[in-house]
Amino acid sequence: MRSTLSPPRRPDSGDLLDLDAAAETYAQGVGALPEGPQRRVARDAMVASALPFAARLARRYRNRGEPLEDLEQVARLGLVKAVDRYDPARGSFTAFAVITITGELRRHFRDHSWGVHVPRRLQELSLDVTQATAVLTSELSRAPSTTEIADYLGVEEAEVRTGQELAAAYTATSLNRPVSEDGRAELGELIGAPDGELTLVEDRLTVTTLIAHMPARERRILAMRFYGNHTQDEIAAQFGISQMHVSRLLSKALTWLRTAMLSDAPAAWPESPTATAPSARITHADDAAVTVTVTGEIDRDTAGMVRDELLRAVKERGAAARVAVDFAQVPFIDAAGMAALLAGEAAAGEAGVSLVVRRAPAHVRRVLATAGIDRLFEEPAAV
Q1: Which domains does the chain possess?
Q2: Per-residue pLDDT tens digits for 320-370
Q3: Contact at 8 Å (CB) between 277 and 295?
């Protein structure tokens, strides 16, 4: 259980003994006096004789963000309360006054000095740690360790660390505090505001890195379209290709960028090892499955061909319970190609058979998985 910090040894013990004797004499004599000027004069004299004692207690709490004059006023208020409530039968006056005056000083710090609301128990813990640190620093001629403070207070080291951290909440700095010699600039003006563009920095850096892995032609097409604001027709004329070809190249580049940005380890740019013309045809059929082999890029120009072949395979499957689509030679697929796959899956479902995708390259697998249609994969991804 945490103990309350014991106050440092008091100097001038002889003076305190005299003060205890004076207080006892006052308490015994004031009871025989009627309410009136004589009683008030005796009370004022007792308070005046103890003012240096109250001032010493106030000075123990200096250098904590509160003016010493204010602390002395609070200590005097506590002294008046101690004089009014003192009962010789309950012990010495100085012991009672220390408790009363210290309590007033702590209450003052708790109610007037904390920049944010902190529970009373934690406020007192912070004050104990601060006072113990000052005492031990004086005794050891160095800053005490957390262990030494904990031993001094009889608490756990975790409580000492909590008390030290609470010091940051003691005094809040005003945002209107001047920070320039002429007083024109305030602290609040130097604090940055949330930058909405900051969240895009990582995406921009990632895109820049990924574009560097693209072929030179695709990089230049992206730059002309999105940085030069050229139309697809203008880009086509620059490269001597059709506008439709430019559209396919842009779609391929953007699809790859989107997939790569969502992947932990983006695939390399998909390159076709051979100049195989796009095709889709039934290459095998037996009682177990009908295989449709697709080659080349599947985009808006070739998706219709793939869809028609898938629908034909479903219709002419015979006794086969499965339509397998071989993607081993498909380096790229866009939204139109995925729509063709979904049309084939829907037709297969109506016919009571399944449609699966086999041997898709890693990049195509990522595209399909990102689109949420990885359920069509016949085999799990390689680890």
Answers
A1: 13-169 (1.20.120), 200-261 (1.10.10.10), 279-376 (3.30.750.24)
A2: 788 999 999 888 788 888 999 999 999 999 999 999 999 998 878 888 998
A3: yes
